[in-house]
Amino acid sequence: MLLSFKEQIIEDFLIPSFILNEGEIIIIEIPNGVEFQKISLRLIELLTEICSEIKYVEHFKENSFLNKLFPTTIGQYLKRCDENSTYKNKIYEIEWMKPEIKINSIAVSYRRLLSLYKTLTFTKNIIIDLLGVDPIGGIEIYKILKQNQKENGSTILFDSCNEFEKDCTNFIRAKYIGTDERYKDYNKIMADK
After folding, report:
1. What is the pLDDT of residues 24-37, one digit of tens each?
2. Is residue 190 predicted with pLDDT exceeding 90?
3. Rounded Cα–Cα distance for residues 155 and 152 (Å)
4. pLDDT tens, 155-165?
5. Of the candidates 104, 122, 10, 14, which has an alpha carbon nearest to the alpha carbon of residue 59?
6. DSSP per residue over 117-186, as a string?
7. Which comes out higher in pLDDT, residue 180 or 44?
8. Cβ neighbourhood burial of 58 (10 Å; 0-12, 13-18, 19+)
9. Dihedral (C-alpha) 53, 44, 5, 10: value to the nearest 10 degrees?
């Protein structure tokens, strides 16, 4: 067992208990929008406290003024990776990806893919979300998660859709338990998807 999560209420959404073992993919379906950010950030905090072996796949972002003048390239971003990992150069299997390409010039799906590969050079146990990723990019990322699963890696995926529900080890749907009228039909809508 990699981690055991006890039922929690976050932002009026009940996240059921679950256990993550090596070689499993767990998908937690949470609502889209502002709530997605709030719930996922709190879950990341809780899950990484429970298990130090699991790492969140950070979104790539450049904040400094210097980065605006001299944007980070793919090669620079991957410099701090584990040199012995098979994932370090996987991004270059995409024909047009080159070390000198500026990351801020590529689509969000490819940035997310790049962050995923970088994180997988350090650990096989990850937390990831598909925030900002288009449907085709989501499928590509899920294929990599499945490959990682074959190598006994574990994943917790936050998503607001159910497209991989039948293909994961465990699919968990957040349940709304609050009184906000905006979410009064949330549980029924999600169950009917």
Report:
1. 999 999 988 888 99
2. no
3. 10
4. 999 998 889 99
5. 104
6. HHHHTT-SEEEEE-TT--HHHHHHHHHHHHHHHHTT-EEEEEESS-TTGGGSSEEEE-EE-S--GGGTTH
7. 44
8. exposed
9. 170
Q: Residue 80 — very low, low, confident or very high, per pLDDT cuts 50/70/90?
A: confident
Phi-psi region of 62 (alpha: psi -120 to 50; beta: other; left: phi over 0): beta
pLDDT at 192: 73
| Residues in contact with 141: Cβ distance below 8 Å, sequence separation at least 6, in sequence order | 109, 112, 113, 116, 128, 130, 133
Joined tokens for residue 137: 């990019």
- Supply 179's token pair: 């009184």
Q: 12 near 176, Cβ under 8 Å?
A: yes
Burial of 43 (0-12, 13-18, 19+ CB in 10 A): buried
Q: Is the pLDDT of residue 124 over 70?
A: yes
Q: Tokens 């499945």 appear where?
A: 146
Cβ-based neighbours of 20, under 8 Å, separated by 6 or more:
1, 2, 3, 4, 5, 26, 51, 54, 154, 156
Name the average pLDDT for the chain.
92
Q: Which of 104, 114, 103, 119 is nearest to 44 (CA)?
A: 119
CB atoms within 10 A of CB 29: 19
End-to-end Cα, the chain, rounded Å: 31
